[in-house]
Amino acid sequence: MNYRHIYHAGNFADVVKHAVLALAIERMKLKEAAFRVIDTHAGIGSYDLAVEAARKTGEWEGGIGRLLGPLAEPIPLAVAPLVASYLEVVASANRPGELTCYPGSPAIARQLLRPQDRLVVNELHPQDGEALRAVFARDRQTTVMELDGWIALKALLPPKERRGVILIDPPFEVAGEMERLVKALREAVKRFATGTYVLWYPIKDVAKVRRFKRALRELGLAKLLVAELSIRPDGDPAVLSGTGLAILNPPFEIERQLRVLLPFLAQRLAVAPGGGHVIEWLV
Ligand SMILES: C[S@@+](CC[C@H](N)C(=O)[O-])C[C@H]1O[C@@H](n2cnc3c(N)ncnc32)[C@H](O)[C@@H]1O
């Protein structure tokens, strides 16, 4: 396990993923009934952007740094409500006007929960698992697990609330992770068909992405929405040109929200002409 999220925390892919996660959680809150957020590949929950690893790549500067903090341009009025919850969580982890800390998905999800909701975060890396445990040590609404994420997913479904958002965000450091993601989703819906699943995938090798989406389509699941954003033209399979989210059972309104949010983010986060965004129903 070589992947360390600190090198990438707050980058453009995190921005898209976390903005969508926050939107999905906010939609769940429109009903009084409790829900659960399950984060199968959670990372450490909070990242110090001043440490050497984060400074070395500087990826956050091209991501969250373009939305918040001293160098960010204002957000247009039409977009602001769509990123308000997400950006409030990030801002609350920082001193006013500063950007030195980036909360990961566990911290973002946790901050958006109501007292009746629950969070389960799972992280296999022993050091990261320990860090996560420390973050949530005294939190009775959050359970920390240190299992293989694919096993955790099976063990945790269905959630007892029968309402939930499941984030599946693997590092893609081993071959076959896309196939594994498809298999995991197939198994997961057998246990919990009505959950909102948010699956992250990298856009590097476009042929691989095409195969991945074909395999997802072949699952025959109704209501599978794909949202992709590229910050540069696709081409070099060694470079992350874009970020993808496959969202099963997206909450009502998310598609409309994405049609406002993604064009803005594609423009704001672009590093070279030729990027853009895609929003499509796979089934
Ligand atoms: C992309 S990062 C997660 C980022 C986090 N979800 C966020 O948005 O802030 C992927 C994480 O998965 C962990 N990981 C790798 N293999 C795993 C496995 N088989 N099961 C669970 N976690 C794993 C890595 O240690 C890493 O922290």
Q: How would you explain this protein's 3D organization?
A:
The chain has a single domain (5-281), classed as Rossmann fold. The chain has nine helices and ten strands. The chain has helices at 12-28, 52-57, 80-92, 105-112, 126-135, 149-156, 177-191, 206-218, 254-269, and strands spanning 36-39, 46-48, 101-103, 118-122, 142-145, 164-168, 196-203, 224-230, 242-248, 276-281. Strands 5-4-1-6-7-9-8-10 form an eight-stranded mixed β-sheet, sandwiched between helices. Strands 2-3 form a two-stranded antiparallel ribbon. Strand 4, helix 5 and strand 5 (142-145) form a beta-alpha-beta unit. It is globular. It binds S-adenosylmethionine.
Care to give the gist of this entry?
The protein is built from 9 helices and 10 strands. The protein is α/β, with parallel strands linked by helices and 283 residues long. It has one domain (5-281): Vaccinia Virus protein VP39 (Rossmann fold, 3-Layer(aba) Sandwich), CATH 3.40.50.150.
